[in-house]
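User:
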Amino acid sequence: MNHIIETKRLIIREFDEDDIMSLYRIESNRKLLEFIPWYKLSTLSECRRQLSKIIDSYGRSKLNNWAVALKDTGEIIGITQLTYSSKIKAVEIGTKILPEYWSKGYASELTEAVIEYGLYKLNIGEIIAVTDINNTGAIKSLEKSGMKFKKYGYYNGSESVFYAADRE
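Assistant: Predicted structure:
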């Protein structure tokens, strides 16, 4: 499995087929998905199909979904991605961290590293993050990671806030 980024406490790496139960654990967590009502993989079968698509895409694109693992144990605690969103016509970063790992700085650490990777390794000019306007934890994490408020708007029918990072 290919490591994409390492931070002080995390490894961001490609998924492999053995990660199916970790992916399912994340995607079926109701608390985690509270602010993402439009995206749910609720069955193991749906997760298996999604994991297969993710793994198949690794050779074709630099914009992908990756597993987020603790460096000291290898446990997968989340998912991150850089993907082109046709809805906002920009590269979007997305992150999901299991609730038991919230408020420990993992999301900010992860977001900062993935943004740096996208801007400077992949030469992306701007990266956008979108979150529900009521998701105060995500907003705090985006700001802590250095992203700047861009605008309020709607995303998939939800009132949202948009943040951006670019090469300065």
